[in-house]
Amino acid sequence: AQKVTQAQTEISVVEKEDVTLDCVYETRDTTYYLFWYKQPPSGELVFLIRRNSFDEQNEISGRYSWNFQKSTSSFNFTITASQVVDSAVYFCALTSLSTQGGSEKLVFGKGTKLTVNP
Amino acid sequence: ETGVTQTPRHLVMGMTNKKSLKCEQHLGHNAMYWYKQSAKKPLELMFVYNFKEQTENNSVPSRFSPECPNSSHLFLHLHTLQPEDSALYLCASSQDLAGADTQYFGPGTRLTVL
């Protein structure tokens, strides 16, 4: 069975601090895809990044960076110099291609609520 | 402008009412999804459609009835709901059902059942 664990339920930081959101996943498949989504108070889940299991290169996009480590089954997300607009719930998600050839459904973690205070 | 729209954004209904949620995607995708997001619980997949055909019903009670007339539109018909059905209902779409395809979400309908 597939599982995504986001152990941090809530995080509160002061603006300009760096913050890392943890994500640990479980899957038996060798081909899988990891995602991060942002859900601001408006409700819409905004896609941030997709990473496949064969690409362990870390990625940076502006103030956002992602650290994918297969050895620890983790896909952590760091926001550098956080801003008030970063306040949202962040979800990590996992899907995979099974050995039978089908796709597993997208499984979400419970989310981490990030509050950035001015 | 978002590629996936949902209406209404907010809905309050009594347990005996019948209402419908609408989702429309402007991304040219072939697969569409309904999710339920309740407080303190992970997102729950409800239904999946691919090329207008339902490919998954995740043990959803029959008081929720989906309809997909074409690849761009998805409806969720609601009748005789219970207060525990109050939640944020999210629609999503993806190019196809392949695991690599990213799902793009709409803003959701916040449903309150009295």
Set down the secondary structure blueprint.
The complex is a heterodimer of chains A (118) and B (114).
Chain A: E1 3-5, E2 10-14, E3 19-21, E4 24-26, E5 31-39, E6 46-52, E7 59-61, E8 64-69, E9 74-79, E10 88-97, E11 107-108, E12 112-117
Parallel strand pairs in A: 2-12
Antiparallel strand pairs in A: 1-4, 3-9, 5-6, 5-10, 7-8, 8-9, 10-11, 10-12
Chain B: E1 4-7, E2 10-13, E3 18-25, E4 31-37, E5 44-50, E6 53-57, E7 64-70, E8 73-79, E9 87-94, E10 104-105, E11 109-113
What does this structure look like?
The complex is a heterodimer of chains A (118) and B (114). With 118 residues, chain A is mainly beta. Chain A has no helices and twelve strands. In chain A, a hairpin with a 2-residue loop joins strand 7 (59-61) and strand 8 (64-69). The mean pLDDT of chain A is 93. Chain B has no helices and eleven strands. In chain B, strand 7 and strand 8 form a beta hairpin. At the A-B interface, strand 5, strand 6 and strand 10 of A face strand 9 and strand 10 of B.
